[in-house]
Amino acid sequence: MQEPEIARWTLIRDTLIFQFKLALDAVRDLILSPVSIVCSLIDIFKNHSLSQSYFQKLMVFGHQTDKWLNLFGSPSKPTNNLEPLKGQPVKPDANVDQLFARVEILLKEQHGKGGLTASAKNTIDRYLNKIVENKNKNKGDDLDS
């Protein structure tokens, strides 16, 4: 039994979302690194207890941002059925995947109306198809040699 192929646009979307999440994670890490040192120094000099510890509070915040980013969660899962999200307000505890689902709804609505996203998608599809055709043609040429 052959594995099902992943849809081109699903893979493109998932890759873009993952790259954005990686960038957010990197920025967060760059900010949290010096902040954690400062928090630790304050805790040391003020002899804070565990409940007063700025460092421990930063760890809780870091854990919350991990859950919010859901870095290695599959972006395809929450966006398979976008209908329940239409017209619903964004919840305060929404994570990155839910925010991207909202963006996807807007893009799909624009695409359905034949807006900019529809023409852009068609143009990108044409170019990607040409690349695949040229690749397949070159494979055939290599086999003939």
Give a description of the structure.
The radius of gyration is 23 Å and the shape is elongated. It contains five helices and no strands. The chain has 145 residues and is mainly alpha-helical. Residues 78-82 have low confidence and may be disordered. The chain has a domain at 8-81. It starts with 7 loop residues before the first helix and ends with a helix. Helix 1 runs antiparallel to helix 2 and helix 4 crosses helix 5 (116-144). It has helices at residues 8-46, 54-69, 76-79, 96-112, 116-144.
Brief descriptors of the model:
145 residues; mainly alpha; 5 helices
Short description:
The chain is built from 5 helices and no strands. It is an all-alpha fold. It has a domain at 8-81.
Summarize the SSE layout with pairings.
Layout: H1 8-46, H2 54-69, H3 76-79, H4 96-112, H5 116-144
Helix pairs in contact: 1-2, 4-5
Distance between the termini: 32 Å
Poorly predicted runs are 78-82
Q: Which class do the helix and strand fractions yield?
A: mainly alpha
Series of secondary-structure elements, N-terminal to C-terminal: HHHHH
Please give the number of β-strands: 0
Proportion of residues in helical segments: over 70%
Tell me about the largest β-sheet: none
Q: How many DSSP helices?
A: 5
**General form:** elongated
Q: What proportion strand?
A: under 5%
Q: What's the mean pLDDT score?
A: 80
Radius of gyration over alpha carbons? Answer: 23 Å
